[in-house]
Amino acid sequence: MRKRSGLSRVSLVLALIAALLGGFALSAGAETSIAAPVKPRPSYGLKGVGAASVSGTATNDLKAWAAARLANDVKRRSRTLAITPAPVTKAATTQALAAPAPGTSALVLYDTTGPYGYLGELYAMAVANLAGHFGTVTSKPVSAYTKGMVEQYTATVYIGSTYYGGTVPDAIPAAFYQDVQASSRPVTWIGDNIWSMANTVGIPAFEQKYGWDPTNSYYEVGGSVGNINQVTYKSQQLTRKIPTGYDGGVLHPAILTGAGYPQVTQLAEATDANNGATSPWAIRSGNLTYVGEIPFTYVSESDRVIVFEDLLFDGLAPQTAERHRAFVRLEDISPKSDPTQLRTMADYLYGQKITYGINVIPVYTDPKGVYNNGKAETVSLAQAPQVVSALKYMLSHGAVLMNHGFTHQYSNVNNPYTGVTGDDFEFFRAHVDASDNVIYDGPPAEDSTVWAQSRVTSALAAFTAAGLPKPTLWTTPHYAASAADYKVFGQNYSARLERSLYFAGTLSGQPVNAGRYIGQFFPYAVKDVYGTTVLPENIGNYEPLPYNNHPARLPADLIASAKVNLAVRDGVASFFYHPYYDVAPLQQTVDGIRALGYTFVGPTDLNQ
Ligand SMILES: [Zn+2]
Fold first, then answer.
1. Would you say residue 25 has pLDDT above 60?
2. What is the DSSP string of 534-562?
3. Rounded CA gap, 499 and 496, in Å?
4. What's the whole-number mean pLDDT along residues 215-233?
5. Given this model, what pLDDT does residue 92 score?
6. pLDDT score, position 1
7. CA–CA dist 538, 430 (Å, integer)
8. What's the pLDDT score for residue 548?
9. Per-residue model confidence as pLDDT tens digits over 482-493
């Protein structure tokens, strides 16, 4: 941060050494910018969760889950996996059905049993959030399915995350298997247990309707899941990066080609980097779309989850016209921002006729004086008239005001970096481990609805005190908060624009488990499982240098992610930019995204 004063010669030397060593020794007082105004900021909210996109607890379980799945698949192949059918309960056959849901509606069914049963709820939240783009969503444990429900909804998605067999009896009622087979309504089946459907309805009947044989389809080929690292969809090459040992594989469907079988459409194709072999990643026949893996972990901005995000249109909004919009917001603007830089950004974007977001932190604080010679410093917007003047200039030149936390830091401690506004988490605790990874530690001890509301109230008051309008959009600092906090934000703003964490307990109604969550971002606006409109951020941001094991992210990387997101038929390329960087990389990014055919729009347009 070249504009900050109080940078000691010692810290400059330390930073220079760190830079020469190719890493960052970011500790109190150690600025890392020398020639360029670059400072490693933990801007990748989701990635901070860990590459797995789920909490640390769940990441450990993913490894055990993958091993258990593959062991079960070996047994199933050798015909030694005994699967105990779900009990036929009276309720399952006689329960009166509710009236069909009005408008576009989705039913999301998920597994809950077995040693990793809770993962089912995490995945169900991911599906429910995406389905929330299209209309109403009803989520249920699959064990609660009753006869006829498939007919009550526009489309149904089942996520097979518990591999039933052995000591884990099948929890899927036979009625679900039979209804899928009998229905013409679209059903998307992800992952496990499709073989149990075929066994229940009869393999010949399944083959006659769908043209493939799940009972002869497996995750491994030649005893290995291989190294499937690419999925091709609508001519876009999507990535798939799952560490060795964590990969449960992609089901290789045994497609039948003889006369009399219906045609199976390959929707997306997986490629194994080990030998170049290709196999279907997702297929469709009849009313059944089958996706060969659960695509919500190890997600990146160019990831194969994009296939699923687009496939949902087929079942829920098949008439959707192709449309590609882009959005940019300027991030981490605080009372200590440089007003000249802000005006430069405004002049460029206004000149391009781009409506953009400005994400403002209304109070800057540096409680330990990390950037102020050891002297604590706090500055509110009202105490920074030149910044306020620049913000008003921006608002009259295409900007939409957004609220990015109250102080964007926590207490007077490193969380994880400096305790200074813009550097640290505000609503979540985190530390940097010995391997230079940012580790999420969960909500602060005092986290509560009241605590979060008090910070929101203070933030809004600071805007008012500075004579600025009330922001109606919110972005959580570093994209991390508790379930209770997210609900508070939802009550105070018309929408959140961000990536989010979704905690176990949200769907089930059980107490929220702060150690079990999934992180997710969206290529379009959704109504999420917290009941809030969430506007998309799916491209990330410009980061000229690597930090905390995240690679640098340059304009070409942002543009490449925007390109693969063209696979989403009505999707958005939404990114953010720090105005303390030079305007040139922003120009490159905007030009590149526009050249792909995207049209820039304002944040409130994203919900239409
Ligand atoms: Zn921020």
1. no
2. EE---SEE-BSS-BTTBPPB-HHHHHHHH
3. 9
4. 97
5. 55
6. 34
7. 23
8. 84
9. 999 999 999 999
Within 8 A by CB and 6+ apart from 399, the residues are 330, 346, 349, 355, 356, 357, 358, 391
Per-residue buried b or exposed e for 166-198, using 16+ beta carbons within 10 Å of the residue's own CB: bebebbbbbbbbebbbebebbbbbbbbbbbbbb
Q: Using the mean position of ligand 1's atoms as its centre, give its distance from the Cα of residue 147 in Å.
A: 48
**pLDDT class for 105, splitting at 50, 70, 90?**
very high
CATH architecture of structural domain 82-316: 3-Layer(aba) Sandwich (3.40)
Q: Where are the domains of the chain?
A: 1-39, 40-51+322-607, 82-316
Measure 43 CA to ligand 1 centroid, in angstroms: 6
558 pLDDT band, cuts 50/70/90, is very high
In the predicted structure, residue 335 carries a pLDDT above the cut 60: yes
Tokens of 263: 């045609």
- Rounded Cα distance between 183 and 187, Å, is 9
Ligand 1 center from residue 588 Cα (angstroms): 22
Domain 40-51+322-607 has CATH 2.60.120.10: no
Q: Hunting for tokens 């490629």 — which residue is that?
A: 271
Q: How far is the CA of 478 from the centre of ligand 1 (A)?
A: 5
Written as one string, the DSSP assignment of 53-119 is SB-HHHHHHHHHHHHHHHHHHHHHHTT----PPPP--HHHHHPPPPPPPSSSEEEEEE---STTTHH
Q: How confident is the model at residue 8 (pLDDT cuts 50, 70, 90)?
A: very low
- Calculated CA dihedral for residues 269, 523, 124, 55, nearest 10 degrees: 100
Rg (the chain; Cα; Å): 25
pTM: 0.93
Residue 41 has pLDDT above 80, yes or no: no
Q: What does the block give as tokens for 117?
A: 């049963």
**Nearest to 432, CA basis, from 20, 40, 36, 142:** 40
What CA–CA distance (Å, rounded) separates 484 from 494? 17
What φ, ψ does residue 547 adopt, rounded to 5°?
-160, 155
Phi, psi of 24 (to 5 degrees): -125, 125
Q: 421 CA distance to ligand 1 centroid (A)?
A: 9
Distance CA(333)–CA(384), nearest Å, equals 12
Among 514, 394, 532, CA closest to 475? 532
Please state whether the peptide bond connecting residue 416 to the residue before it is cis, i.e. omega within 30 degrees of 0: yes
DSSP H/E element including 363: strand 363-366
Q: How far apart are the CA of 128 and the centre of ligand 1, in A?
A: 27
Question: How many whole angstroms from 477 Cα to the centroid of ligand 1?
Answer: 5
Q: What does the block give as tokens for 57?
A: 């607890």
